[in-house]
Fold:
Amino acid sequence: MERADVPRDELPEIDGMAAEDVAAAFHNLTERRLLLPVGGEKKRFAAAPPDAACEALIRPIVQQARTARDAADRLRGELVSVYENALERRLRQPLFEELPDVASVRRELDRFATEARHEVLTSQPGGGRNEEVLQEAMGRTEAVLGRGVRMRTLYQHTAQYNPGTAAYVEIVTGLGAEVRTLGEGFMRMIAFDREIVVIEQKGDAKAALVVREPSVVSFTVAAFELMWRQADPFPVSLGRAQAIRVSDKTKEDIIRLLVQGESDKVIARRMGMTVRTCQRHIAKIMERIGAKSRVHAGYLLREYEGDPGLAALTEGDADDGPHDPPAGDRDRSEND
Structure:
């Protein structure tokens, strides 16, 4: 029997179908908009054209897709704008920028450290560092490590004898920093995210140079990585065996510089120790090889070059330390 409409509460009986199946079919048809209420009331329902039902069902999905597309277009525009603004700011920044004094150096180091996202590399020659510099660097270091930024620092072997530096290293390594030591031959520098490098200006330890030129930055970071692979972990406690090992390595470097004919002052500066401590090491080396003068020592040491006996010249005692490098104004531009 065909009917123009169907009452909700009086569903027809259909041969071969149970009442609950008819009710389920009625529900499915109304859900799919193939049965629509007559006169706006949900008491009687009439059949609707499939095209109209399809349009009614698809319209909300199309609207959601359009809204999502508009949101994606807005987000794309915002990201492009952020990128272009950042690129424009970067292009406006000079490839090389001089920082003429301690205040400007600290201000820029604070800014670079705050903006660092991935990694900070720093090499600090000169032996132990003074308390003021360590205190000034601590807050910056804690903030960087607290954000999950990786930090690696290189010191000279002689820094291990400095109690303040050793205590500082113990704290920052506990926070996740990595610290190693090397003999001599590296520069003072700090690299941020392999994009910016700050180096000490030649002839003015209170000033610094900011380098953004990609090739120079890449070369500097590569030099750091080479030194890092050659360096030893900084021990938080300097036992007798470690003290002897550090002292022996120090003497090896001093012997090499003596052979090169460097003066006491140059050797002391490159080894991160006072001239007096350096002269004490040299005196012990001269005593062991039986040298009567610096010239005689240079001659004898050249004779030892390539000879396994050279190792015996460096076998010292733990009481060769400690080393106390001067903590002058040059330290005031350091970061860690």
Q: What stands out?
A: Residues 317-336 have pLDDT under 50 and may be disordered. The two ends are 91 Å apart (CA to CA). The chain has eleven helices and eleven strands. The first helix runs from residue 19 to 31.
